[in-house]
Write a structure and sequence with these properties.
Structural class: alpha+beta
Pfam family, one: Pkinase
Domain Protein kinase: 10-276
Shape: elongated
Radius of gyration: 45 Å
Number of helices: 17
Biased composition (Low complexity): 372-397, 404-414
GO molecular function: ATP binding; protein serine/threonine kinase activity
CATH superfamily of the largest domain: Transferase(Phosphotransferase) domain 1
Largest sheet: 6 strands, antiparallel
CATH topology of the largest domain: Transferase(Phosphotransferase), domain 1
Distance between the termini: 110 Å
Helix content: 25-40%
Number of domains: 6
Strand content: 15-25%
Transmembrane segments: 424-445
Oligomer: single chain
CATH class of the largest domain: Mainly Alpha
Length: 712
């Protein structure tokens, strides 16, 4: 691939990673002259339509996400320039390292550092879940961290296993093949292959455990053992390995990794809210917060405590004695990478494919085949065998290959006498069968009635309808509905047409109308506080932008978009405008320039102008600036710039010197600061008296000017 030009545009460079379905190369987009990452499907996999469709689905799914913590997808194509189909995906290039490198170097790490690394990951997953996408392969290898020179931003990559959540795409991608990384698989993925947003929440919780402790919660000699422990063992508390971890951090790990997915946060948006609460407790320096820990810990039902027989083993994990769900993990084996296209990339957790194989048991001789039974090899081997014995040396009949031999049991018969007990027994049997039939008719049909349809009726009308049918009505928890007006019935339990005992109770679910939330007043809050407030009202944080503000402190919310009070659907995004503080104003030096021009320029920029002094100047023209304070730097609106303004040169009136002796006139003029020169007038007689001067008597001239005396 190196040096090849894909699609006439992408020049392939060095390979930077290799995964189960594809390799990633550094490449140059020759059209836009930028560095990109190109993921190329392994040769041969493009011929497998199922794998190819999944690869294309990765492009479409990831391209729907526009989030600062998700690796951007630019292009997708199929190049056949060398005679073979090369399916490829063009993505944002993130120079740096992965979260796995951070785990190797820093784990175990303090809770604050672990949560700071996990927060952008959960934020990215929250955006995916809001878009209806499930990542399905969250692990440290899929979290990229840019170099400091490129901002150090954390980004989630490889949505190759993501799937749009819909009714027909809940199962595994390959019909019985479980795709994912075993160390981070949620129990429900192992048991029945079904996944939703809570599977990503579970994986994120496992990543948090690994950041806090430096170890994976479940380890084994094979993927099967690891998967088994995910199903039957709780993730232990991180504080068992790192005693300094607060109880509410333990609770967050327990909540996100609960084996009962109903106890986990519904999606990453809810998990992000819990994570912010824990971060705030850490910022407050709380070593323990029993209330927060109790709120975060998963709730245990009474059946968990009474029937499961939970106990702690020597590892600190809670285990349950429930039998392993054979239908979920029957004959679990790791697929040969050469057969599946899943090639080990050398990382500790490569994506693994696990297959389920049904096991059928033999049918009794002469009888119908039993329903297929699923069991693990261990379960099958440990299953007790029941045999019937008759006489020694019972012949053994060999069945088909792979089936256990069965023994033929000889049957002997003896003659019997007629007895009157036979008709009596027959009569009793008939009566018994009649009683059973009558009981079955009564208990199975007659005492039941059909739930009438009361949908779209109000509570009063629905209650009357049910009472007319001999049933009682009670109101259950209301629910939101986009289609049914508030106060009308949107569902019943049992549902319309369902069976209910005569005189039984039908629960009505009333509509609350469309689910809507008002944008809260976020002004004056920090960005984190605003995000928590949005999550609490089931709204989503979109993006933030900065604006200068003279009144709102830096880092606080100025306004939101949509504005406060706008009614939105749940999950709608709200953008924030954050204050960047007061806008700085650069000051220009106006020395030697017109003061009036300086005043106009500064007042236009909302600065105050003052004149502290006016001085005579032989070098600065009248009305120009002699000096200013400050002459440069940064000011803010309303600050003052002070000026000293020139009055021009100082003027002195020329005195009367006519008829004065030349010495006396010279002394007088020099005393006033003038320079004196003498010349002979046209009527010069040598008398030494002044006949006139230039400038003449009474004129205002600058101090230091030269006065010429004309003598007679």
């Amino acid at each position: 691939m190196v040096g090849r030009l894909l699609d006439g545009r992408y020049r392939i460079g060095a390979r930077v990673a290799r995964g189960g379905m594809a390799s990633v190369y550094e490449a140059t987009d020759t059209r836009l002259d930028r560095l990109v990452a190109v993921k190329v499907m392994h040769p041969g996999l493009g011929d497998d339509q199922e794998f190819a469709h999944r690869f294309v689905r990765e492009a479409r799914a990831a391209a729907r996400l526009n989030h600062p913590h998700v690796v951007g997808v630019y292009d997708q194509g199929d190049d056949a320039s060398d005679g073979t189909d090369t399916v490829f995906l063009v993505m944002e290039y993130v120079p740096g390292h992965t979260l796995r490198d951070v785990v190797r170097k820093e784990a175990p790490m303090p809770p604050g550092r672990a949560l700071a690394l996990l927060e952008p990951v959960v934020s990215a997953l929250a955006a995916a879940h809001r878009a209806g996408l499930v990542h399905r392969d969250v692990k440290p290898e899929n979290v990229l961290i840019a170099d400091e020179a490129h901002g150090g931003r954390v980004k989630v990559a490889d949505f190759g296993l993501a799937k749009a959540v819909s009714a027909d795409t809940q199962h595994t991608a390959t019909g019985g093949v479980l795709i994912g990384t075993v160390s981070y698989l949620a129990p429900e993925l192992v048991v029945d292959g079904r996944s939703d947003a809570r599977a990503d929440v579970y994986a994120a919780g496992v990543v948090l455990y690994e950041l806090l402790t430096g170890k994976k919660p479940h380890e084994g000699e094979s993927p099967i053992q690891v998967a088994y422990r995910h199903v039957h063992h709780d993730v232990p508390m991180p504080s068992l390995l790192q005693p300094g971890i607060p109880d509410y951090v333990d609770a967050l790990v327990a909540r996100s990794t609960s084996r009962d997915r109903g106890q986990r946060p519904a999606d990453a948006t809810v998990l992000l809210h819990h994570l912010h609460r824990v971060e705030q407790a850490l910022r407050d320096g709380l070593r323990s917060d029993p209330d927060l820990a109790a709120d975060l810990l998963p709730r245990r039902t009474p059946s968990d405590a009474t029937s499961s027989g939970d106990a702690d083993d020597d590892t600190g994990e809670r285990t349950t004695p429930e039998p392993f769900d054979a239908s979920a993990l029957a004959l679990l084996t790791e697929v040969d990478p050469r057969d599946s296209g899943l090639v080990d990339d050398g990382s500790p957790d490569r994506t693994t494919a696990l297959e389920r194989h049904p096991v059928q048991t033999d049918a009794p001789a002469g009888g119908p085949a039993t329903e297929p039974m699923r069991a693990t090899p261990a379960v099958a081997a440990a299953a007790p065998t029941t045999t019937m014995t008759s006489t020694p040396a019972t012949p053994v009949r060999q069945g088909p290959p792979g089936r256990a031999p069965t023994r033929a049991v000889p049957v002997t018969t003896t003659a019997r006498r007629r007895s009157v007990k036979g008709p009596v027994a027959l009569l009793l049997s008939v009566l018994l069968l009649g009683g059973v039939a009558a009981g079955a008719w009564w208990f199975g049909w007659e005492r039941w009635t059909t739930t009438p349809g009361v949908l779209n009726l109000d509570q009063v009308a629905a209650t009357d309808e049910l009472e007319d049918a001999g049933l009682e009505a009670e109101v259950g928890e209301p629910a939101y509905s986009e289609n049914v007006a508030a106060g009308l019935v949107i569902a019943t339990d049992p549902e319309p047409g369902g069976r209910v005992l005569d005189g039984g109770t039908v629960t009505l679910v009333l509509s609350l109308g469309p689910e809507r939330y008002d944008v809260p007043d976020l002004a004056g809050q920090t960005e984190d506080q605003a995000q928590d407030a949005l999550a609490a009202t089931n709204l989503a944080f979109g993006e933030s932008s900065g604006r200068w503000s003279e009144t709102v402190p830096e880092g606080q919310v100025i306004r939101s978009s949509p504005k406060v009070g706008t009614t939105l659907k749940p999950g709608a995004t709200v953008d924030l405008v954050l204050s960047r503080g007061r806008k700085p104003i650069e000051v220009k030096d106006f020395t030697g320039q017109s003061f009036e021009d300086a005043r106009a320029a500064l007042e236009k920029r909302r600065l105050q102008v003052s004149v502290t002094d006016e001085q005579f100047s032989d070098t600065v023209a009248e009305g120009d600036v002699i000096s200013q304070d400050p002459t440069s730097g940064t000011l803010f609106r309303g600050d003052t710039v002070s000026f000293v303004v020139s009055l021009g040169p100082e003027l002195v009136e020329v005195p009367r010197v006519r008829a004065m002796g030349v010495e006396a006139a010279t002394e007088l003029l020099e005393g006033l600061g003038f320079q004196v020169e003498t010349e002979q007038s046209d009527t010069y007689l040598g008398l030494g008296f002044v006949s006139s001067s230039d400038p003449e008597q009474g004129e205002q001239v600058p101090k230091g000017s030269t006065i010429t005396l004309f003598l007679v």
